[in-house]
Amino acid sequence: MELHSKRLCLQSIQNKHAEEVFDYRSDAKTNQYQGWIPQNIDDVYNFISNKVSKSIDQIDTWYQLVIICKEDQKVIGDIGIHFLDENKKQVELGCTLAKSYHGKGFANEALSEVIKFLFTDLNKHRITASVDPANIKSIAMLERLGFRKEAHFIKSIFVDGEWIDDVIYAILKDEWINKIQND
């Protein structure tokens, strides 16, 4: 699978991307809000081989896309799509971007393409995103994309020996259509 925007190409993750993915994903400080930080390159190969679905739109699986900058052909991030329900109408998104590409609109551009694909090509009804409430930049980006806050769960996720909060944002297909018509 491949999607294109003005500056980006989004492709299904493959073993050939492992080293570049490890380079930005292993940065624990930058990725403090992520659920997965690989400790070594084998963790990335294992993730690609055993954790990521080989085909898109399979119930209760994650499908992973890498974000490639067209200008320098570097893998600068990734987007995970979690296919949630047996009716195939709801998904969850997650996005990680290399630190040197933060603040330049790349995540917004990549997520916009994925959202368009999910609503237009796969006819999804609802897209959600789970965010640490301290991750204010990601929350602001989701709101710019048209997502709205649906829930704030107190100490609902156990990470590294600590209970943390979780905020859920969502957008419905008709909300997205209204947003793009008004932009």
Short précis:
With 183 residues, the protein is α+β, with helices and mostly antiparallel strands. It has helices at 18-25, 41-51, 106-120, 136-144, 173-182; strands at residues 2-4, 8-12, 61-69, 75-83, 90-97, 126-131, 148-159, 162-172. An 8-stranded mixed sheet has the order 1-2-3-4-5-6-8-7, sandwiched between helices.
What does it look like?
- The chain is an alpha+beta fold and 183 residues long.
- 29% of the residues lie in helices and 34% in strands.
- It is built from five helices and eight strands; from the N terminus they run ββααβββαβαββα.
- It has an eight-stranded mixed sheet with strand order 1-2-3-4-5-6-8-7, with helices on both faces.
- A hairpin with a 6-residue loop joins strand 4 and strand 5.
- It is globular, with a radius of gyration of 16 Å.
- The model has no long low-confidence stretch (mean pLDDT 95).
Instruction: Report strand order across the widest sheet.
Output: 1-2-3-4-5-6-8-7
Number of strands: 8
Radius of gyration of CA atoms, rounded to a whole number: 16 Å
The oligomeric status of these chains comes to single chain
Mind summarizing the main beta sheet? 8 strands, mixed
